[in-house]
Each structure stands twice: as structure tokens, then as C-alpha cells.
Amino acid sequence: MKRTDMRVYAVTDRHWLNGETLYSQVEKALEGGATFIQLREKKLDEESFLKEAIEIQKLCKKHHVPFVINDNVDIALKINADGVHVGQSDMEAGDVRAKLGKDKIIGVSAHTVEEALTAQKKGADYLGVGAVFPTSSKDDVSVLSLETLKAICHAVSIPVVAIGGISQDNIDKLYGSGIDGVAVISAIFGQKDIKKATRELVCKTKKL
């Protein structure tokens, strides 16, 4: 995993499907230049989740883009995914590392400098930090100040991805913060032209 892999980190959400398949949406995002894909399923049954993960993993391999699973370490292990992303209330990074092995990518959500440093110490490869703006995707996360985001970037040596409410209209407010990329959901999958939206985000993240 390279820092540039973090630039446009697309997180799936079937809320935005609108009759389309997740596969076709992810394919468009990859064609638009998405550099990282996280499969996030909160309500799908295990069998359907596994089948979907295998299909999207193939897409990501075709485009040579890292593919991680949100939260579900067992699914990541079963399909030999590139890694997993866990939150503060999920399995600890050290335990995930023990289960997946030393060569897998482990991402951890962090909201404070303390959480960020602990995650790094426990073996996280990158951090997802937010929410940096108000977001409808997660209603249990408060908005971080730009100062906290900068402090986290300064405190750790691993890549930092900002997440939460990021769009074409506000991404410029993150310039100079020290982040390596942005993780987005609706800014890609909630757009009518997913490929175009992704391409525009790729251009904007070059200024980070």
C-alpha cells in the first residue's frame, strides 16, 4: 500500500443504489480513478455479503486497486481481501493483525490524537479520521475540528484519510491539513454520473 492509494477512497453504501447494482457502481468509480475501495455492509446477511465481496474483489484486482472489508474480519479472511477497516468499537488493530497476518492492510477509525497514536502502536496501516464535516451516513459521530485533524496528521507517521461529509464543494477546506486522501460515499455513489464525479475528485485531491 502506497500513500497515493489513499487519495480517493470510495466507501460503498447501498442507500445510493437507486435500482443499480453495487458492482456497476463500483466499476464506474474505478473507471473514474478511485484509488481504494472499502466494501461496507451493515445489514446484508453473511452469505450475500460473501458473494458480493468476491465479485467486487475481482473488479478491484482488475484495476489494481486495494480492496478492504469494513468491520467483518471473517469475510476478509475467507476471501483473502487486501485488508479490513475497523472502528473504535470493533476488534482492536492488534487482534485483527494476529488474525489476518502481517501482510494485510488494517485501517482504523480515529477521532482523537490519543486514538490515532494507539491505533498506530497496535499496528494500523492507515487511519480514517472524521467526521470532518456533518454527514448523514453516520449519525453517531460528531464533527472534528480542523485543528484536531491537523494534530492527528502531525502526531502519526502512517497515512491519514479524512472522512465525513466531504464533497466537491468543501474539499478545498482540507487543503494543507496533512491528510493523504479523502474517504467518500455520497460524493461518488450519490451522484448521477459516478465516473465523472470520481474523476473530478481525483483532480481535486491532487492539491492535498
Automatic annotation (TrEMBL):
Key word Ribosomal protein present: no
SUPFAM superfamilies xref list: Thiamin phosphate synthase
Note on how the cofactor is bound: Binds 1 Mg(2+) ion per subunit.
Binding site for Mg(2+): D71, D90
Keywords: Magnesium, Metal-binding, Thiamine biosynthesis, Transferase
Gene3D superfamilies given in the database record: Aldolase class I
Keyword Glycoprotein found: no
Residues the entry annotates as binding 4-amino-2-methyl-5-(diphosphooxymethyl)pyrimidine: Q38, L39, R40, E41, K42, N70, S109, K138
Pathway: Cofactor biosynthesis; thiamine diphosphate biosynthesis; thiamine phosphate from 4-amino-2-methyl-5-diphosphomethylpyrimidine and 4-methyl-5-(2-phosphoethyl)-thiazole: step 1/1
GO molecular function: thiamine-phosphate diphosphorylase activity
Cofactor: Mg(2+)
Known EC number: 2.5.1.3
Residues annotated as domain Thiamine phosphate synthase/TenI: 8-188
Catalytic activity: 4-methyl-5-(2-phosphooxyethyl)-thiazole + 4-amino-2-methyl-5-(diphosphooxymethyl)pyrimidine + H(+) = thiamine phosphate + diphosphate; 2-[(2R,5Z)-2-carboxy-4-methylthiazol-5(2H)-ylidene]ethyl phosphate + 4-amino-2-methyl-5-(diphosphooxymethyl)pyrimidine + 2 H(+) = thiamine phosphate + CO2 + diphosphate; 2-(2-carboxy-4-methylthiazol-5-yl)ethyl phosphate + 4-amino-2-methyl-5-(diphosphooxymethyl)pyrimidine + 2 H(+) = thiamine phosphate + CO2 + diphosphate
Name of the top EC class for this enzyme: transferase
Residues that bind 2-[(2R,5Z)-2-carboxy-4-methylthiazol-5(2H)-ylidene]ethyl phosphate: T135, S136, S137, G165, I185, S186
UniProt cross-references to InterPro entries, sorted A to Z: Aldolase_TIM, ThiamineP_synth_sf, ThiamineP_synth_TenI, TMP_synthase
Family note: Belongs to the thiamine-phosphate synthase family.
PANTHER family: THIAMINE-PHOSPHATE PYROPHOSPHORYLASE (PTHR20857), THIAMINE-PHOSPHATE SYNTHASE (PTHR20857:SF15)
Summary of the function given for this chain in its UniProt record: Condenses 4-methyl-5-(beta-hydroxyethyl)thiazole monophosphate (THZ-P) and 2-methyl-4-amino-5-hydroxymethyl pyrimidine pyrophosphate (HMP-PP) to form thiamine monophosphate (TMP).
Protein's UniProt name: Thiamine-phosphate synthase
Annotated organism of origin: Jutongia hominis
